[in-house]
Design brief:
It is a single chain. By secondary structure, the chain is α+β, with helices and mostly antiparallel strands. It is 54% helix and 17% strand. The chain is built from 14 helices and twelve strands. It has a six-stranded mixed β-barrel. Helix 1 packs across helix 11, helix 10 crosses helix 13 and helix 11 packs antiparallel against helix 12. The longest helix is centred in the C-terminal third of the chain and has 38 residues. The chain is elongated, with a radius of gyration of 30 Å.
Length: 429
């Protein structure tokens, strides 16, 4: 550790002799690392962070499909869903839901909210337990039952000031009274970011099989797998097509992993954007590596003296890597500061298009990614000047004084410029 600290101090002094180059390199790397940090925080928070459900790999999302509507992912009819979940032996449980916009009214003021209407099994299927109060019960599924509601943590904090006595309080949802029976934990998430959960209260009511406005979340039974569930559900659905041909003809039913459903349709766009900013970082790395190669050309006499005094390429390696790491860590620190603002801008602009926007932040995982990225960038940009500092070149430089540079350095610089241009063209495409 002492030797490493000494090399970093030497690298810092060496870079201090070229402040203009050091500042330019740090700003360049800060741009690339900051952009990658901001985008990774969005990708991680929206797509990669573990979902707050118990045994999430056993959860599936049920939908209908039709070639005219682009395949699977279409809402289902309530009677079909009831028949499918009643006939399935490979689903341990399934909960039906739909969403609706609503008005929440209290003595203070009205407010527009998103209501998730669910059957009583929903929280049990997801493996979520209310932090306050209780879950829905089966009797509350029936049409005409007393209206009850479970609040999400966000609406509980924003509207009710985190009041624990909210349990048992009556609020008005869509001009009707509803008793608050529970509050969900802060990590709870469901696509669409609902504010309130209420019983569906349509079970047992008459609904057209051609009215598709519902979906379901199911949990696989022990020993069941996704292909088997898909086959079973399609077999059941084909029976429904035979019995009710007009609303079901040319349709099929489908099951997707819950993780894929939560990721949403913007998953490909986010990964593409991540690839784009990765190319920006790679271009920045090549740019800085080229600057350091040019700097190494100008330091041939200094390096030749060190070699003549007994230094080897192995001895010089920590010096060059130390310079790269010093630049990359400084660029990473500056990039992290800019990423804070970048994340806020991205979430503000695209909040409605992002899954789990409240989970997007520069957390420990994102900062660890930034540190690893910065170290990798440091080794990358420090490696190319080391290639230029071959012992045979250093001996020639010592004999020739401080004049000129060899063709090898020019070839390396040209190769780096070509790589940079190629990456830029790829990024534009």
């Amino acid at each position: 550790m002492g030797g490493l600290g000494k090399e970093l101090k030497v690298a810092a002094r060496s870079l201090g002799s070229s402040p203009g180059l050091a500042i330019l390199a740090i700003l360049t790397l800060a741009l690339g690392i900051g952009a990658n940090t901001a985008i990774f925080s969005v990708v991680f928070g929206s797509l990669l962070a573990p979902l707050p459900y118990a045994d999430v790999d056993r959860l599936v999302w049920l939908s209908d499909g039709h070639e005219r509507f682009g395949g699977a992912g279409v809402d289902q009819s309530l009677p079909n869903l009831e028949d499918l979940r009643a006939g399935s032996h490979l689903l341990a449980a399934a909960a039906i839901y739909n969403r609706e916009n609503g008005n929440l009214s209290t003595a203070e003021r009205p407010e527009r909210v998103l209501v998730l209407r669910v059957t009583s099994e929903m929280l049990g299927v997801l493996g979520v337990v209310p932090r306050l109060g209780r879950d829905f019960v089966a009797e509350e599924d029936l049409a005409g039952s007393a209206r009850v509601a479970i609040l999400t943590d966000g609406i509980w904090r924003a509207r009710f000031g985190s009041d624990p006595d909210v349990i048992g309080r009556t609020v008005n949802v869509n001009a009707g009274p509803a008793e608050v029976v529970g509050v969900l934990p802060p990590e709870f998430f469901f696509p669409g970011d609902p504010d309130i959960l209420m019983p569906l209260q349509h079970v047992g009511a008459e609904h057209s099989r051609g009215t598709r406005m519902y979906n379901a979340v199911g949990r696989l039974a022990p020993g069941a797998d996704l292909p088997a569930v898909r086959e079973e559900l399609q077999t059941l659905f084909e029976r429904l097509v035979e019995e009710y041909p007009e609303p079901n003809d040319d349709w099929f039913t489908w099951a997707d992993p819950m993780k894929d459903f939560v990721a949403g349709r913007n998953r490909g766009s986010l990964y593409l954007l991540g690839g784009g900013v990765a190319l920006v970082l790679l271009i920045a790395c090549v740019n800085v590596a080229n600057l350091l190669v040019v700097r190494a050309e100008r330091r041939h006499r200094e390096l030749a003296v060190r070699y003549a005094l007994g230094a080897s390429r192995r001895n010089l390696l920590p010096h060059f890597l130390g310079e790269g790491v010093m630049l990359s860590l400084a660029g990473g620190a500056l990039g992290t500061l800019t990423a804070y603002g970048g994340v806020e801008v991205l979430v503000a602009l695209y909040r409605d298009s992002l899954q789990r926007p409240d989970q997007i932040a520069l957390n420990g995982t994102v900062l660890a990614f930034t540190l690893v990225t910065s170290l990798a960038v440091g080794f990358f940009v420090g490696f190319f000047p080391m290639l230029r500092a071959r012992p045979v070149d250093l001996q020639g430089s010592l004999k020739e004084g401080a004049r000129g540079s060899s063709g090898r350095g020019s070839r390396m610089g040209s190769a780096l410029v070509m790589a940079e241009v190629s990456l830029a063209v790829l990024l534009v495409v």
